[in-house]
Amino acid sequence: MVRGKTQMKRIENPTSRQVTFSKRRNGLMKKAFELSILCDVEVALIVFSPRGRLYEFASSSILETIERYCSHSRNNNTSTPSESVENTQHLKEEAKNMMKKIDLLETSKRKLLGEGLGSCSIDELQKIEQQLDKSIAKIRAKKTQVYREHIDQLKEKEKAIVAENVRLSEKYGNYSSQQARKPYADYISLSSDVETELFIGLPDTRTRNMSH
User: Fold this and answer.
1) What is the DSSP string of 57-116?
2) What spatial distance separates the first Cα and last Cα of the chain, rounded to whole Å?
3) Who's near 46: CB < 8 A, 6+ residues apart?
4) Which of 17, 36, 155, 178 can pair with 11 through a Cys bridge, CB separation 3.0 to 4.6 Å?
5) Which of 128, 136, 103 is nearest to 120 (CA)?
């Protein structure tokens, strides 16, 4: 049976919430224990239930692990105010440079679209023209490539159609020739079975012969 994906929000049903808490808590404890054994790391886990009950796991001493964590946090937060100001100034400078680059790109884009060219010098206009020529050359080359690929596909389809026509001609051409010969043979056979009265001579002679 496929398990559905659990939506990450608070479980409203108290019974379901308690059952889920128990299962997930035990699984979390198990994973913490496995991580400490397999990777030889120091792990401390603290969980408080909705009713305030404490659940904890520690690979050594949970108090020592907490003290180690606090000491590590203090050592990483010992930067002086001057360093913080320098970092802030550096971030502001980077943001200002990024805004300048964005403005230059927007201006260049507008000029390539033919907008805001009144303030451009001859050299700038020539550079824009060269950029457009290069872009047009690339577009035409890509267009030619697409056309060639399309033509090659059509040629392959044409070959397939011609081959199919040849096959059908060979198949039904023999059948048509056999059907054409058959009526002629039937006509010859029918003509040989028909009796005809043929008389050559004058009409009165023909009458006398018929009276006899």
Assistant:
1) EESS-HHHHHHHHHHHHHHHT---HHHHHHHHHHHHHHHHHHHHHHHHHHHHHHHHTT-S
2) 109
3) 54, 55, 56, 62
4) 17
5) 128
